[in-house]
Specification:
about 500 residues, Arginase, Chain A, 8 strands, about 50% helix, about 10% strand, rod-shaped, binds arginine, Arginase, Ureohydrolase
Length: about 500
């Protein structure tokens, strides 16, 4: 079961079925709720998914919202049927509010998209009341169109192209035409996300740009894939925000949903539409769902088209409400700074190889001189070899795309400690109290007076001794460098880890 963050009774559904078509010019969208219910949508929700249904469950309930519409309804500011749309949406807002107030999920079957003025207003108001004024509801508007025309920018005068502008306060209503829409019913444009846009009017584009509205067009879906788009959409909304999903069936490609008033080719596949619904449901933040613009009478060549569209609608609703636990494997994606990491490996490899080489030759020298081999010679060789193995391990993990910061941090720490011990011992040998290497070198090698010249045994011996002294210096320099680099890799790993969360 998906745990719901904002509903008190998540298995209760408040149904609003609105047979209304006044937000646009084509008859037929008003028959959609009946068609959806007759296709078995509500029985599936109650019998298969286990919801308790409240509200408009009978196939005829959808007519009450449009009863007693004003007989005389001339345009206002270019809007067609303004009074009818205003009074119907007001009624819907009250219904949606009543269900949402109870902590139920609100499911609205439209109708054209103008009815979202009512559903969004009602749920926004309930969210404000239930969670305090500070909490704004987010709206995910899945649609081929932005529906954000103001009466002034609209070319058609159809209110189904304007709901977002009234809901966000871009367009102000007055008197009997949306005068009822108050401050507490508003939504913020910052919490609005569009998905599926591909037919946006010139005036709408300007509005979207000027208000910085988050919109994922079909271009974005092609570019990033629907999975990434949903991730970005929800990242924008944030995970502590109730979500109202308003799904216009024309977001789907006409191939999947041909029976709709304003079809636009090049849309979402049915599967992408389903994915959106599933994804939003999985957030546990869903408080309301609308399905609009299904118009069964617009079946151009055959009845199959209408049937398909209704079926697509049912599928969308089901997916946005399916109550099941999916095991979500959290996939981390760590972003390692490639250049730094490569530099680190290269420098550490050089330092380790140098140390191995120097101490291997020191051991040989001791053997030739028949001197005992001090414990720290093999110790250095071991630590440096471990470092080389660690680098090989990192390369292998990078190749497998499984370089976890924790592995790097633990490995880096262990090596750092070993490395530090080595560094301390070297320092003691170099500058320690008794017969230190450094003082011997300064005395007999670098400070030898006179320095031997010419091809003699003495010169060769002096050169051999100088090489040993220089090797000690190199070992110290690279030991110090390695220690610092090991500290650095731990910091780097921590940053990569912190970045991810
Ligand atoms: N919900 C819809 N199907 N809206 C279509 C809107 C089309 C156009 N932008 C208009 O303002 O008229």
């Amino acid at each position: 079961m998906i745990e719901s963050k904002f509903l008190t009774t998540p298995s209760d559904l408040g149904i609003i079925a609105v047979g209304f078509s006044g937000g646009q010019g084509k008859a037929g969208v008003d028959t959609a709720p009946t068609a959806l219910i007759e296709a078995g949508l509500l029985t599936q929700l109650s019998d298969d998914l286990g919801y308790t249904l409240h509200g408009d469950v009978s196939p005829t309930a959808s007519t009450v919202y449009t009863a007693n519409l004003p007989a005389h309804d001339p345009p206002v500011r270019g809007m067609k049927n303004p009074r009818a749309v205003s009074s119907v949406t007001r009624r819907i807002a009250e219904q949606a509010y009543a269900h949402a107030r109870e902590g139920r999920l609100v499911l609205t079957l439209g109708g054209d998209h103008s009815i979202a003025i009512g559903t969004v207003a009602g749920s926004a108001k309930a969210v404000r009341e239930r969670f305090g004024g500070g909490k704004d509801m987010a709206v995910i508007w899945v649609d081929a169109h932005a529906d954000i025309n103001t009466p002034e920018t609209s070319g058609s005068g159809n209110v189904h192209g304007m709901p977002v502008s009234f809901l966000s306060g871009l367009a102000k209503g007055e008197g009997e035409v949306f005068g009822w829409l108050g401050e507490e019913e508003r939504i913020s444009l910052r919490k609005l996300v569009y998905i599926g846009l591909r037919d946006v009017d010139v005036g709408e584009k300007r509005i979207l740009r000027e208000n910085g509205v988050k919109a994922f067009s079909m271009f974005d879906i092609d570019r990033y894939g629907i999975g990434r788009v949903m991730e970005m959409a929800l990242a924008h909304i944030g995970n502590d925000t109730p979500i109202h999903l308003s799904f216009d069936v024309d977001a789907l490609d006409p191939m999947w949903a041909p029976s709709t008033g304003t079809p636009v080719r090049g849309g979402l596949t049915l599967r992408e539409g389903d994915f959106i619904c599933e994804y939003v449901h999985q957030t546990g933040s869903l408080v309301a769902v609308d399905l609009v613009e299904v118009n069964p009478s617009l079946a151009a060549d055959n009845d199959l088209a209408a049937h398909e569209t209704v079926r697509a609608g049912c599928s969308l609703i089901r997916d946005s409400l399916t109550y099941e636990r999916r095991v979500v494997e959290r996939v981390h994606k760590y972003h390692w700074p490639a250049v730094q990491l490569n530099l680190w490996m290269l420098v550490m490899l050089i330092a380790s190889c140098l140390i191995i080489g120097v101490f291997a030759s020191f051991i040989q020298i001791q053997q030739i001189l028949l001197l005992p081999i001090p414990w720290y010679f093999p110790y250095y060789i071991t630590v440096a070899s471990l470092t080389v193995s660690f680098i090989l391990l990192l390369l292998w993990l990078i190749f497998q795309r499984r370089l976890l910061p924790s592995i790097v941090m633990i490995g880096g720490f262990v090596l750092f400690v070993l490395w530090l011990v080595g560094l301390v011992v070297i320092s003691i040998q170099l500058w320690g109290p008794s017969a230190s290497v450094s003082s011997n070198c300064d005395l007999y090698v670098f400070g030898a007076d006179p320095q031997p010249r010419g091809q003699s045994i003495q010169t060769l011996a002096w050169l051999a001794q100088r090489a040993i002294c220089q090797s000690w210096q190199a070992v110290f320099a690279f030991g110090l460098l390695g220690g610092i680099f090991l500290l650095w890799i731990m910091v780097m790993a921590y940053q990569v880890f912190a970045d991810d969360s």
